[in-house]
Each structure stands twice: as C-alpha cells, then as structure tokens.
Queue: 4 jobs
Job 1
Amino acid sequence: MTILTAQSTDSDTGERLDRFLAYQVADLSRSRLKGLIKAGAVVRLKGSDEIVITDPNRSVSIGEQYRVSVPDPVPAIPI
C-alpha cells in the first residue's frame, strides 16, 4: 500500500476534493481518486482525529490535510 498526503492552501478553497487531489497527486487520475474516495481510502486529518471522507464533491477548505491510501496493484489473472 502507498500512502500519499496533500495539504490545501488558500488557492484550493472551494475546490472539489477529487479535483484538488488530482492536482496534488499527478500519478493518479481524477477517476481513480474518485473511486478511492468513495471506497473510504481518503482521510482528512484534523489534529489527532482522522475523518473518513466518502464524498468526492466535498469542498476543500484552506489548511486541510488529507491522506490517501492507495492499495498495491493486483496482478491480472488471464481467463
């Protein structure tokens, strides 16, 4: 599993979460990030609390920190 982090700035305020993360994490598409968000793999860090975010349309506020847990790829099994 790969753990990625992102922190919002003033210019990110009001941006959709999936769009914000796509700008921050160039290795993953917005569609992939949207799926990860819906699957509960994105957490907003607030002090010592971790809040699972499942809404890709959520608006980002200044100074928010996010952690994305990206599962390792699973090898394809030929049919």
Job 2
Amino acid sequence: MNHPKLLQWLEAHGYDSSMVIDANPGILEDYDYVWNHYSVTRRGGVVNLEPKKDAKVWGLLIEFQDPLLRAFDRSEEH
C-alpha cells in the first residue's frame, strides 16, 4: 500500500485522511508476526508483533495525528 491508496482506504472506511502526515515502506528488525488475538467483529485471528531475534517485519510506516490512533485502536477492539 502506498500513501495515496492509504488515503483512499481511510476515506472509504470513514476516517479523516487529513490526519495522515506521511506514509512510507518500512522494516521493523527483530520482530515477527504472531496470530494471538481473536476478533469477534471479524470472526477470526488478528496479527500482532512480538520481539524475535533476527526476524524482520516489512510494512508501511505511517505518521499520523493522535486522534487517528484512537480510531484505529477502536476499530481493532483495543
């Protein structure tokens, strides 16, 4: 996902995309994916990240304003 597609996704899901400051590809070293949470809303597993030596997680590094973080947390049942 690139920055324009992220903005489109946010708008399509009712989020204020103006709160996104920047988005770029990123790598998180010494972490790995774990499926250790169940989402009642999605009726399935949800991925989290945990420390793991020599592992890498590739993803999208997003800089955004705090209200959007709270919206993401609500959508992820936190």
Job 3
Amino acid sequence: MGELGYREGVDFKFEFVFAANVESFAEGYRTLISRGVDIVLATGPEVALQAAVANAGSRPIVMVAIDACNRATCPSRAI
C-alpha cells in the first residue's frame, strides 16, 4: 500500500481479531463489523469463510482459502 502512496493510520488501518477455535469465528467477524470496517479479509478453512459471509452484510469480502491438501500431502488431489 505504501508503494501506492497510502499511509497506514492516515489513509487506512488494519483491524485484527483472533479466533481461538472454530466456534469463535462468527463472534470474531461480528467484532470486526462492530468496529465499522469497510472490507473484510477472511482467511482459514471453509467454516471461517462461511462465518465471514454470514456476518459481513453488504461489505466486500476478500477470501484466502487454506487447503491443507497439496501436492506433497495429497498428490491425487493436487492441481
């Protein structure tokens, strides 16, 4: 962002919420939404992405899916 001329704390800020377990994903996203975020970054397993969708309302969501099955661990499923 800095290379594009944006300054953290002036033009944008990052808000973080840690979810200790699967059951706390939804509460974490509700916390972020209550802070007035404009965009949600959702990372983790599918249940985390589902919690983001369920709580983000009309806000855009950037999703980063993490799949533990890769070429090394599941060669038959590798893309």
Job 4
Amino acid sequence: MDLKDLVSIFNRARELIDCFKEKEADLEKFKALVEGEEIHAAVINGKIAGFVSVWAAEDFLHHLYVAPEYQNRGAVKL
C-alpha cells in the first residue's frame, strides 16, 4: 500500500469538511499521525477507495477516510 495514496485521500476528504483547522498534511506529517497504527484499505477495482487506521493496543479507531469519488456509494462501511 502506497502511503502517498492514503495522504491524497486524507487531504481530499478533509477539504470537504469544514471542521478541521489544518486541512492538509504532507507525507511526513501523515506518517507521524498514523505511527504505530494498523492501516486497512478498502480497494475497489485496484484503487484505494478509503482507509481506516486503528490504534490496536486500545481498540481505538483513529482515522476513517473515504476518497470523495467513492463517498455515498457504499464503498466503506463499519
């Protein structure tokens, strides 16, 4: 899994939501945000549609983002 793809989804999804102070992260900042977390991706037709990162030690779901082009299409469900 290429982290650059996840950073792209992270940034594009956050642009659509008006509650984040910082809208964009670069690769290094993203790596720091998910350090030590398990990352699972939803893949549709070979493309990453979304991802979740989990801090497994505390069963904490930290991030769940869906690429804008896959939102409201049932691509990622809990």
